[in-house]
Write a structure and sequence with these properties.
Keywords: Hydrolase. Pfam families: Lactamase_B. GO terms for molecular function: hydrolase activity. The protein is an alpha/beta fold and 209 residues long. It has a single domain, classed as Metallo-beta-lactamase, Chain A, CATH 3.60.15. Helices cover 24% and strands 35% of the residues. The chain has helices at 45-52, 67-70, 73-80, 91-97, 164-175, 194-197, 201-207; strands spanning 4-16, 19-31, 35-39, 56-61, 83-86, 105-106, 112-115, 118-124, 133-137, 142-146, 149-150, 153-154, 183-186, 192-193. The mean pLDDT is 98.
């Protein structure tokens, strides 16, 4: 059975630096009819379990540790036995949401995760958060960028733990070097492609966000 990408949108709130905002998050499920992994367990463990449809959940991968991307991760892990994976540079953010429940595994740049015969390579893409990662799945023609790259530009860098020059370096050096046809599956909003976004890098640098 060929691996595929399933998608659902969950709704909740994002909180940081004393503010709270309503958000819709993309949850990505990569796998086949038997097994899968979840990228960003956002808001609603019940909805994610329903979307899994009885498949064995092998891992919960966190693109970064802002609360809206990880708030349902411990509940989903408890109900499935799946291990939570996070880059260690995002542990300070993780502890703001789940102070008593550490993640299970560390993600590292260049690490390869395999599910249903497909390899996903971890790319450390800091800037939106120190431990932000993207996951490149060449066999599926996709890169999962969390909040690093969106349709129309970089993720936000105006709050704690973020840095605009760093996210620009991540996008330029780690993402825009991927094949132009690669579909960018983002943490919020619509998909795009590397080829559609690459021509606009200098515009983003000039505008500063």
């Amino acid at each position: 059975m060929a691996a595929r990408i399933d998608h659902l949108v969950t709704s909740g709130t994002f909180s940081l630096d004393g503010g709270t905002w309503d958000v819709d998050n993309n949850v990505w499920i990569v796998g086949d009819d038997d097994e899968a992994l979840v990228i960003d367990a956002a808001h609603d463990a019940d909805a994610i379990l329903e979307a899994l449809g009885g498949r064995t959940l092998r891992a919960i991968i966190c693109t970064h540790a802002h609360n809206d991307h990880i708030d349902a991760a411990p509940a989903l892990a408890a109900r499935t036995g799946a291990l939570i994976h996070l880059h260690p540079d995002d542990l300070p953010l993780w502890r703001q949401t789940h102070p008593g429940t550490p993640p299970d595994r560390e993600l590292a740049d260049g690490q390869v995760l395999t599910i249903a015969g497909e390899d996903l390579t971890v790319l450390h893409t800091p800037g939106h958060a120190p431990g932000a990662v993207s996951l490149y799945a060449p066999g599926l023609g996709a890169v999962f960028t969390g909040d690093t790259l969106f349709q129309g530009g970089p993720g936000a860098t105006g709050r704690s733990f973020s840095h605009f020059p760093t996210i620009i370096d991540s996008i330029r050096d780690r993402l825009l070097t991927l094949p132009a046809t690669t579909v960018v599956r983002t943490g919020h909003g619509d998909t795009t492609t590397i080829g559609d976004e690459a021509p606009h890098l200098e515009e983003w640098i000039k505008r500063g966000h």
